[in-house]
Design brief:
It is globular, with a radius of gyration of 12 Å. The protein has a single domain, classed as Alpha-Beta Plaits, CATH 3.30.70. It has a five-stranded mixed sheet. The relative contact order is 0.35. About 25% of the residues lie in helices and about 40% in strands. With about 90 residues, it is of the alpha+beta class.
Length: about 90
Amino acid sequence: MTSGSSARRFIVSGKVQGVFFRAGTAREATRLGLQGHAVNLADGRVEVLAVGEAAALAELEHWLQRGPPAARVDAVAVEAVAPPELPGGFRTG
């Protein structure tokens, strides 16, 4: 990532597991040139960590408010974090 990179941690609540939310997030993040991950949490939420340019992070946040067609997003909590060192790409877990 470039020195102008920012990072955001999103916690997405609602019907977001078992509805291709992580795969859709990875596809959208990759399209936006972001790095990071989308992982299921034990409580049914999804954590998304994304690193990249501020405008791309804003677009991803907008997408996360809707998610893929089968999802129902109730809330998205956003936290600015220090950009971590990442191996590249966007992974799901």
